[in-house]
From TrEMBL, chains A, B, C:
PANTHER family membership: 4-HYDROXY-4-METHYL-2-OXOGLUTARATE ALDOLASE 3-RELATED
Name recorded for this polypeptide: RraA family protein
InterPro entries assigned to the protein according to its UniProt record, in alphabetical order: RraA/RraA-like (IPR005493), RraA/RraA-like_sf (IPR036704)
Organism: Caldiarchaeum subterraneum
Transmembrane segments: none
Domain of life: Archaea
Length: 239, 239, 239
């Protein structure tokens, strides 16, 4: 962390991403089904306290991370933000994950960043904090998960502590390249090393849940359908 | 309340419901007008801290209740939830009312329960807690009033303490068969014994408010229109 | 403030409003751009903790203010509210600003007031508190910024302490005639004496931000475009 006028952020440009086909399969799964699969694998991945701010969108992609910290007295002012690095480090389909420490009094994202992200094919942004220019972002239907909106700028209030370092958002550790999954229910982080196992389990959960709904459609009671497909065991560790 | 591995919930299957014609008349009234009528009858019925999660829907129906409590160490895991009882106890037009103690870290409702509820003709669900599968529930336009959404399951975190017992949601006692009214403004509970009186008063409030709006349309000032229809007395007890 | 049955509110009917052409120009600007201009002028104007309750609307207009205070034991009940004064004091395009002390347990605005406000051509309402009749207000697409909705009336709970006095909403002082700007991101107050300076600066901010987006469209990186238009200095005082 920089102190007293030093601005010396850690910038990591190389990110190891999971295979694209795994990410694409996650995109067809809901956060609840994948959350159950995370539990099967004894991984905590539910990001808390962030809301889906654009209804009806769904994202899955590798995390590009940034950690912001406040300026201290004596520091010189904001010189750059994640936008200055996007052209170098972000690829199509990435998800920007911003740790602004849950600050709700000023923003760290707006429409210039959104316009740039859309141009680069970035999938969406997850912010432990606030953003602005909500009207324009709603028009673009750009996926954002955040604490809320406020007009006040983060300029001269925040500075970059690190890009593509491990960050914490909504109580969850996110490392660059971890898969971020978001939908109307919320946001998950899937550790990249376990992505294949979690995908397999999530597909089993989804399949079982679909069978339960089909069974109720066909005339079983919900109790019968659940027993048939072991509903209350779906989230339990099998490994 | 069950302790240390005992799972012995209180299940009541028989619910005394108010007459259907009374419920149907409530469905045409707004929660604000009925809230004023509750005050006239010195009844507190405003459920606090729950949000209407599907915009533009309105529900009125008798409550089917469930109280969940957390699992304790030594307990064996969730064996059933309200869904297992729906086929036995719920009738078309009922409202499911769930007391999950205001828990925001895991859910107690999702799309399988919603699909089942829709199949059974259930009117909606009121949850002092969270739910998941919001995207699917929005598509079904199934009315839910809750604290919010999160992907994490309640399975192996909660258990039934009672079905069709008295519960507390948003600071209000709800007994099975009490009428639940919900719209974009919020949720009310109307005690079944007083439903007829409250309905009568609510219709008077609605009529007076309509006359005030008509009078302003016709050229009176709001001050004049309110004095004519005793606006500031509408919520006062007359019995 | 009135005590023990005294009801003696301060009512000011004459409000000095900024020129209409200045207000109309603000209506084309976003709260983020104007927020940056407020900072340039060393003015704090960001109203916190109120949410835009009707999506996709934008307001700019001079404030007509009301301060409510709770009834105390011994007081006689609500005799009037802001609606009783609207016909005398509000003009087309005004914004009603209500300081209800952030109370979330009862309302101070509803559909009769909204209907009357629409009839009078009032632009919108900002409430540090709650409102009701959200369904009807959504249908009218009347702009409201507030803490949320609840059915419970404020009648016999609140009384007027002052109309067109200085009030506090969301941590910001608002005086009658100050310009209120609201959009999907939030609400600002622009002090009337500084409106012309702030407007000029906000247009510069908007112009610079548009140039940055155009430059990224034309192939510059965001870093290059920002340096060209001095992005990180836009909010800094120049006077």
């Amino acid at each position: 962390m920089s102190v007293c006028g030093d601005y010396n952020p850690t910038i990591v440009t190389k990110v190891e991403r999971p295979p694209r086909n795994i990410i694409d399969e996650f995109k067809n799964l809901s956060t609840p089904n994948v959350s159950d699969a995370l539990e099967r694998n004894r991984v905590n991945g539910v990001v808390e306290n962030l809301r889906p701010m654009v209804s009806g969108v769904r994202i899955a992609g590798p995390a590009i991370t940034v950690r912001y910290v406040p300026l201290s007295p004596g520091e010189e002012g904001t010189k750059e933000d994640i936008g200055d690095y996007l052209f170098e480090i972000a690829q199509q389909g990435d998800v920007i994950v911003i740790d602004n420490g849950g600050v709700t009094t000023y923003t760290c994202w707006g429409d210039i960043l959104t316009f740039t992200a859309v141009k680069l094919g970035i999938a969406g942004t997850v912010i432990d904090g606030m953003f602005r220019d909500y009207d324009n972002i709603l028009k673009m239907r750009y996926p954002i998960f955040a604490r809320g909106t406020i007009p006040r700028t983060g300029k001269d209030r925040l500075q970059i502590d690190g890009v593509n370092v491990a960050v914490e958002v909504g109580g969850i550790l996110v490392r660059p390249g971890d898969i971020i999954l978001g939908d109307d229910t919320g946001v998950l982080r899937i550790p990249k090393e376990k992505a294949a196992d979690i995908l397999k389990d999530a597909k089993q959960v989804e399949e079982a849940e679909r069978m339960i709904i089909d069974s109720v459609s066909s005339g079983l009671t919900l109790r019968e359908a659940r027993q048939k497909y072991r509903y209350f065991q779906l989230q339990r560790a099998t490994r």
